[in-house]
Amino acid sequence: MSLFIQIEEVEALSSIYGDEWCVIDEASMIFCIKISSSSDEPKLTVCLQIILPNGYPSTAPPIYQINAAWLRGPERAKLANSLEDLYVEHAGESILYLWVEQIRDFLVEKSQSSDAVPQPEKRNMTAEEEVDDDEDIPDLRTLKLNTDNEHLFLSQSDDDELPPIKHGNAITDRRSTFQPHLAPVVTPRQVKMVLEKLYENKKFASATHNIYAFRIYCEDKQSFLHDCEDDGETAAGGRLLHLLQILDVRNVMVVVSRWYGGILLGPDRFKHINNCARNILVEEGYVGSTVRCSLGLLHKHSVFFC
Description:
6-stranded antiparallel sheet; 4-stranded antiparallel sheet; 9 helices; 10 strands
């Protein structure tokens, strides 16, 4: 029955949105829609990527990801929270149309506000990563989502406490500064709480990029819930998550802030991001002595941290 409802909803959305609606993998129910504020300037655009799990809409929410280099920090969290609120309000119902229009309303409101032009995108894009506006939208033919994201909806408890946040030593290279932050997390809600707390700090909020990754072990499913964010530093989040996987750490979130100093670092920036993360994981006891030794050899021979 769920599949029939999904097919009906997809057909309706395709009819409503036309070329804006894109089928990535019909068999896996993976779709994408490009949403814009309007045809007027300034025009803001995001790409909403969606996976419809087997239980949607009756028992499971859509798995989603929002792509927009200019959308970050508190504004990204605000939009994500509004989508989750809509899902909770309409639990068991088809929700995609409401989500798309909610995002469109958000973009219209943003474009009409005094800070309508998305300056954070320009501030967050170093010369190493500057791209045309159209490149904010990923190649739809190769788009894949991390299906673990569906768990982001499963922790709605208000009982989650803000975990302690540790701040590691900074690395500076050619006027760019990298600083790691770490927090133990056992629910996605705690991930959000940590980010919100960090963004309350003006220095953190002013960083050119705040890259993060987390890895949570779900005892009941005996599997890992994980996700990452580039925050404008393309591929940095994925590399950071890969580091957490290589180290086999669990129930931890690592954030690396970068303040761009005006001089291009090239691939060295990824080395500094991962080294910052590795250092704070070692300092906080998430990495054993055997792994530390192996990491030292890898670093020495530039196998992983290049």
